[in-house]
Fold this sequence. Notes:
heterodimer; A: six-stranded mixed β-sheet; B: about 0% strand
Amino acid sequence: MPLIELQDVEREFVVHRREGRVRRRREVVRAVDGVSFSVQEGEIVGYIGPNGAGKSTTIKMLTGILMPTAGSVRVAGLDPQRSRTELAMRIGVVFGQRNQLWWDLPLRDSFELLRHVYRVPADDHGRRLADFVELLDLGPFMDTPVRQLSLGQKMRGEITAALLHAPSILYLDEPTIGLDVVSKSRVRDFLAQINTELGVTVILTTHDLSDVERLCSRLMVIDLGRVVYDGTVDDLKLRHGQYRTLIVDLERPNGPLAVDGAEVVRIEGPRQWLRFHRERTTAADLIAGIARITPIVDLTVEEPLIEDVIARMYSGGNGEPGRGGERLKD
Amino acid sequence: MAELPTLAEQATIWRRLVGARIRADWQYRTSFVLFTVSQFTAAFLDIVVIVILFSNVDRLAGWSIAEVAFLYGTATLAFALGDVFISEVELLSHHIRQGSFDRFLLRPVGPLLLLCGQEFAFRRAGKVFQAVLVLGVALTQVPVDWHAGRAAMVVAMVGVGFVIFGGIWVIASSVAFWAVEARELANTFTYGGNFVSHYPLEIFSGWLRRLVTVVPIAFVSYHPALWVLGRKDPNGAPGWFSFAGPLVAIAVVLVARVVWSSGIRHYRSTGS
Lengths: 330, 272
């Protein structure tokens, strides 16, 4: 049985838009519009989409904070709507931009408080905490008030706080936002480790696609409240990233090269960028074609960036990240 | 595993949260001490008002200064305890606006317990000391023939009053679930109710008297005080009103429960 199962889940919000000074127009916005998916135990799923696509709304429904307008949600065999408190014992949640630690107290105190809130036996708690302190190298700042910690240190503390009661599912809402490269990779390594060693199922939302590429066995893309892609990262590139770019350095500057099956997208002095469809032509044919026109000094073929691939999926694949018009909430 | 923590476990959680809160406040000890002192001092202004009043008149609607001080002492002590233990529930509107209320719903413990524990306002305790002081003096001055029953009534007044004020705080703060900017509304009923409870009801006009009977501030101190002091209600309220406090308190708690949990339900179904 899947650990998480959503079926035709919808979530609407009523917003009041101001029109003029006093008048307000009531409007119903559908933030999540018929989402169905299931997650098996032990998966790491990346849940991505532009701002306002419905990511956080989905996570909130999975935790029981928010009730769906329609559809059914099951998490760990429970109905989050009815068994919110019971479910709380089985899940850990990290909201990247919101703090669950006690701001003016050291990490050590927050962890001890959470031990009581979750009623974790002292020896279990001690053992787990010792593990996390070692893995995430919390030792040097366990006794510093949280407000004095760096963003990276805080995030490591947050993740520990979310895991001390040994939940089977960990939700992370933008866990690497604002972190430097070193902190990011440390957080990622740790998430991978708790997934393989403790079997924690991880669902994370992010805007940083390198998180997804490094961590996630599975990727879900949501746009306008609908799942537009659900599969592996490689599959995504294969299915949606048909375009590659050939970058050629010519001997001397040249007008846009006219070769079959490719289009020049950029020119900088003697360097030109040619976009081509991988199924209609090959890099070898292109190079041969160009060489007939003018001598080539150097060349590279660029794989599609996952960013570009995904940007192309948002709102009809026009390649523009995001879309026109504002959206209500994330 | 039990679905919800037992009462003893909840008490432990609350105690821990309060301990953490006090340690956190102590990080800013100057501000903490100043606030406590200012609360204590500000509370004395109430007394100054009463003293000035009685320097002009001997009796207020037939009540002596000692009797009014008794009324003031019991009501203020009940209120101050509510202020320390419960009043910070009004931060609910702040948490809803900031989005931090979600966090309370993610814990395997009731959000009200977490909120009251986490936001515990020890710095408001200055008022408790002041109330104890005034009540102590008043008890020695009122012309009452003390016996166990009357003494028990004084204790019950404070307990019942604490519960009633606490309940009103929860009810009024719950409005934030529907209308986020409602902190002032809560204050109207709590701080306003507190003021009314300092004085004999007969000095107020009829509509206010009726209001504090419905919003049951009158049961905090006025009606039981009539019995303790051996006075008759000049407005002809039945004698059993003096003993109705506990029932009223239970009713307030039940209403608070219903309002609070439907607030939570509303929050979860609308999102904020």
